[in-house]
From TrEMBL:
Molecular function as annotated in GO: phosphorelay sensor kinase activity; protein dimerization activity
PANTHER family noted in UniProt: NITRATE/NITRITE SENSOR PROTEIN NARX-RELATED, OXYGEN SENSOR HISTIDINE KINASE NREB
Official protein name in the record: Histidine kinase,GAF domain-containing protein
Organism classification: Bacteria, Bacillati, Actinomycetota, Actinomycetes, Pseudonocardiales
Histidine kinase/HSP90-like ATPase domain segment(s): 291-381
Cell membrane recorded as keyword: no
Biological source species: Saccharomonospora cyanea NA-134
Amino acid sequence: MEPTLAARALAAATEITASALSDVDPGTVLGTVVRHAAELADADLGLVMVRAEDGSVTVEAAHGSDRRDVLGLVLPAESAAGRVAAGGETVVTDDVTSDPRTSRFVPEVLRSYGPFAAASFGQGGRLLGSLTVYRDKGAEPFATETVEVLTAFAGQAGVVLALAEGANARHRLTLYEERERIARELHDVIVQRLYAAGMQLDRVRRRMRWRFAQADGARLGEAIDQLDATIEEIRGTVRELRTTEVEPREPAATETDLAESARGEVRIAGELLGYPPTLELSGELADIPAERADHIRAALREALSNVVRHSGASEVRVTLHRDDGGVRLRVRDNGCGVPRDVAKRGLRHLAERAEGAGGEFSVNSSPSMGTLVAFDLPLKSG
């Protein structure tokens, strides 16, 4: 991505994240998301469309000269935006009114536009909608890096709606099981999104350090630090939600599918590495106690983060095994080892986690052999 565009995208993403984590009305934040997406894509119109149960999509936020005409517009499930919102691949076309994939369901108010791109967004495995951008007929089609920006901002829209749903639920409900659900979504969805954003920005900073002005490089570093701090604040909120003493009316969900969590972490790492790590699962991993699963997931995330940021590895293997004694995690790479000048805060944190939970943690690393991270945990505390 061109350095100036990367810096603008970073500044916009930081603003959106800060707004989403504050008490700003979600509708306002969605407007900010689509405004930045349209401006960065040099689009004449940008739309956030939210998916209904029947698959149709409704325009909830818009930016451009026609925004008042399209707010509230409903497109059918068969439309390009509807198909994308249902989990279809990103759609890009030079002319939305003549491309067979898109032309049949273009409403009259949108027929003056040509180049078109749409990306889906969701949270917690649930699809929520699509983010679309349009240019006037005859304009240049959207370039690949522009579509990448659109996809990133679609993810931001999903984060906004996830946070809005969690905030409304916190105000509306006081039952223990609802707090546990909110905590799980914050931990599994929002932290994962911010973690991936931070990793991507860090890679941009390191790959393009020589092309950034000193001030831009410093701002990138500050934004990454802010994302790390935000992740820690969210984790603190999760701990508070899970430790508040309120007697539940019904038993709350106390088990986690650790295999699904591992697949999600490995998938994100693969997107950042440019190749998929090998994942080996064995034993019953679908009923791991939530508190135990959180420790394992944190260890996997930190180990993969170090691989992405520092190792330069061409191969990564993750093994997760459960037996009668507990759960064993191994993350091995063939990279350069953990550099001596790299901060060890994350690794120290995992060592403390393992000790506090009655488990074991170790790291074996060398420039010639790569790195092996081991995290073993019994399934019962104490």
